[in-house]
Amino acid sequence: MATNADADGSETDAYTELEDRVKRLSYLGDASGALAWDQRVMMPEGGAPARGKQLSALSTVSHDLLTDDEVAGWLDELESRDLGEDERVLVRETRRQFDRATSVPSDLVAELTETQSDAQQVWENAKADANFDAFAPTLDDLRELHVERAAHIDESADPYRVMFEDGEPYLPLERVESIFDTLREELVPLIEEITESDAELATPFTGEYDDDTQMALCREVVDELGYDWNRGRLDTAPHPFMVGPQFDARITTRFAADDPVGSVMSSIHEFGHATYQHGLRDDEYGLPLGQSRSSGVHESQSRFWENHVGRTEAFWEYATPIVNDHLDTDATPEEAFEAVNQIYPENRIRVEADELTYHMHIILRSEIEREFVAGDLDVDAIPERWNDLMEEYLGVRPENDAEGCLQDIHWTGGFASFQNYTVGSVLAAQLDAAMREDLDVDDLVREGEFDPIREWLTEHVHSHGQRYTTDELVEVATGEPLTADYFVEYAHEKFGDLYDL
Question: Are residues 202 and 304 located together in one domain of the fold?
Fold first, then answer.
């Protein structure tokens, strides 16, 4: 077995050295995540300049540790060995990261990280003022930096494809675009039918509710679902998110006084992300086998809990008394079920969108950022392009930039990630169909027995970490490749019944 000599004369194996390095990199990444959580949840506004430099320093250290010549030597040596399956996973995942990272100069990494961190505060201020012009120069800088980074990674490739592969490395962009084509074909006419339907769904949760009331409700709901408070917490943020490893997966939500159920659904969504983290192997923390597979797979977990649990008749048979108790309402389970499943094509806000029109929001964003990254759309033209596409897809125009092109924080961190929300919804429906072959999901939900559902997902998805590529994991979990068929069937059946189509 090949070895390397330590300073004290002892010898260590190349695999052990690589494993230790990967762990250190993961720990640094988690530290950056904790700082980012603080920035978005608790940090005073004046702390932004310092936080940007702190995150930049951590990213530079991580970049240097990953691109060190020693890592190249260890990878070269290990790739010539007959390794076990677990060892091959570590080498495969590290090689991919190493090849991409060594292509990018460390000064560009530092500049991009600091710019992204600073951009979050710029975006928050611009959104608060509904003023895209205040964010536009920063967004243009981000585009140039990300395009430059993509060119370093693969000069001959479409920069947008390179960016997409950051979050979804093993799922071809063409496959995702094919799924988008299917959804356009199926969902647009379905939404039109619903819009023309005479069915009137119940709206039992009227009135206004303060933040404390909504927080207490959200805490109880995620507690009932099985959130591990010893390894997480629930806070508020302008844009809900989850961050952290399996030992500390924190979730956030946000409140609107006239939409208490919206905060519940947001909390359930982020709970789904947290269950993925909590389901990862503790003994593999810091290593690929203890890390989530990809953005799309992660989104499948949040979408599963939000839509295939939280928006079901069975869930509202169980949860309506809890909601009524907190909100002092008298809704029936049937009314509550109808309330959380109404289709609102006129809604302008993605995170408040219903289960069907949501995907039109995703397609809109993907088209705009593709044009912007390619240089075919000037930054100053984004608001008008956004408003035109929203009118084309949803029949409504934003009244200002805050409810238009400034509503999402995502562009402060990069581009080509919105597709994964739709990938997640499609995969969630496929996982739901597979789970129902093994479990009586509705009966479990109706009785508040959520443990078997979490355990099924942990066994079929979470526990594998990054052992499989995305395609392989989908087949292992469901028995077939990723397909939009289950989501389309689910959508037609569910909303056909609700709206008497």
Answer: yes
Round the average pLDDT of the chain to a whole number and report it. 94
pLDDT above 50: residue 212: yes
Assign residue 2 a region: left if phi > 0, alpha if psi is -120 to 50, beta otherwise?
beta
164 is a domain residue = no
Residues forming the active site: 270
Residue 367 forms part of a structural domain: yes
Q: In the chain, what percentage of residues exceed pLDDT 90?
A: 88
Please state the three-class secondary structure of 44-59 as a single string: CHHHHHHHHHHHHHHH
The predicted model gives 418-434 an average pLDDT of 96
Q: And the tokens for 12?
A: 């260590």
Burial bucket for residue 198 (CB in 10 Å: 0-12, 13-18, 19+): exposed
The parent domain of residue 75 ranges over 3-157
Residues 127-152, mean pLDDT to the nearest whole number: 97
In a domain, 88, yes or no: yes
Q: Are 394 and 372 in contact (CB under 8 A)?
A: no
Please provide the DSSP assignment of 161-182 as one string. Answer: HHHHHHH-TTS-HHHHHHHHHH
Phi, psi of 37 (to 5 degrees): -60, -50
